[in-house]
Amino acid sequence: MTEILDASVAVKWFVREGEAGLAAADEVLHRVLRAPEHFAVPALFVYEVHAVLCRRRRSAAEVNEDARALWALALPVVQPDQRLLELAADIALEHRLTAYDAAYAALARHLGGIWLTFDEPAYRRIRRLHIARLLPLA
């Protein structure tokens, strides 16, 4: 089963200070390192992680170093197509998700996978679809 990584998971690999859920994020990272082909991310994931790094890091050099490390993981990045966008719209409107969160959920549904996230409100909205797993913050 393909696991869809939320940006909230990847950010914790780089920004550690004051973050909850580091043990769960690190466990996912270890699995990514062993088998990146078992994971996937929507294209917007890259921009979401980059946006957080730009807010939380002190210099462009730090952001760029983290970005290089992220690319080195060789996570499969799935570009949107009409089918994924339509599925994301259906999920967003039916379950009151942002279009961003719906992109992750749609990719999970499309690939028959599971979306790994720390976003509890989004998870609660779609948990009955059985396409998401809420990672523990403890």
Question: Which terms summarize this structure?
Answer:
138 residues; alpha/beta; Rossmann fold; 5-stranded parallel β-sheet; single chain
Characterization of this structure:
With 138 residues, the protein is of the alpha/beta class. The chain has a single domain, classed as 5'-nuclease (Rossmann fold). The longest helix has 14 residues. The protein is globular, with a radius of gyration of 14 Å. The mean pLDDT is 97.
CATH class group: Alpha Beta
Task: Record the strand order, biggest sheet.
Answer: 3-2-1-4-5
Return residue spans where pLDDT drops below 50 for at least 5 consecutive residues: none
CATH architecture: 3-Layer(aba) Sandwich
Query: Quick one: how many beta strands?
Result: 5
CA-CA gap between termini? 25 Å
Q: What count of domains describes the coordinates?
A: 1
The name CATH uses for the topology is: Rossmann fold
Mean pLDDT: 97
| Global shape | globular
Quickly give the structural class: alpha/beta
**CATH homologous superfamily?**
5'-nuclease
Would you list the SSEs in sequence order as H and E?
EHHEHHEHHEHE
Q: Could you describe the largest sheet, including whether it forms a barrel?
A: 5 strands, parallel
Helix share of residues? 55-70%
Compute the gyration radius: what is it? Answer: 14 Å
Number of helix segments?
Answer: 7
**Residue share in β-strands:** 5-15%
State the assembly state of the protein chains: single chain
